[in-house]
Amino acid sequence: MAHVSAAERRPQLIKAAISLMAREGVAAGSTRAIAAELGVAQATVHYTFGTKEELYRAVMEQLTRDLVDQVTRAAPADASFEETVGTLAEEFWRTVLDQPETHQLLTELSMFALRTPLLKEALQSHYSEVLTVTTQLVEGAAERAGRRLAQPAEMIARFFLAGFDGLTMQHLSLPDEEAERVCLRALIAAVLAMA
């Protein structure tokens, strides 16, 4: 059997971990189960990541990158501030509707990380990156539209993300398509009023 380097194996293990944990939950994400998901020896996981926590960190980083990339690609280049905020919120919400298991996994990993000292930094990094990107999107939309913001862009981004996290949790816990549409429109209106 040909040797596969750790650099090549790393994305395979991350993908296997995401697949397994999205399907069965974080509690099912043992190194043994993740190795079995990919069809490799458990030692391969430890050789590639060192610890389960490092693998979980890599999973959080990958999920964050994937979601951020999806949303930033949707940012319109020549729309009004209002249209841009609406488009970004709708695109972000589409990721929840199309990939609920990804958002559930991120939520589970976040709760797990709060009680795992080795993962607290990864959790802070996740939220920091999402906040930074959201702030940049708000600033960029305002600059393109020649709009002066009434509040700092980071405060607007924090407000939006707090509302969005709540909507996501409601969708995962007690989905109601009509109520979610109304709440998303209200969140967009509140963000625009704050801006």
Automatic annotation (TrEMBL):
SUPFAM superfamilies: Homeodomain-like, Tetracyclin repressor-like, C-terminal domain
Matching PROSITE patterns: HTH_TETR_2 (PS50977)
HTH tetR-type domain segment(s): 7-67
DNA-binding region, residue range(s): 30-49
Pfam family, one: TetR_C_31
Keywords of the record: DNA-binding
GO molecular function: DNA-binding transcription factor activity; transcription cis-regulatory region binding
Keyword DNA-binding found: yes
PANTHER family attached to this UniProt entry: HTH-TYPE TRANSCRIPTIONAL REGULATOR RUTR, HTH-TYPE TRANSCRIPTIONAL REGULATOR UIDR
The protein, known as: TetR/AcrR family transcriptional regulator
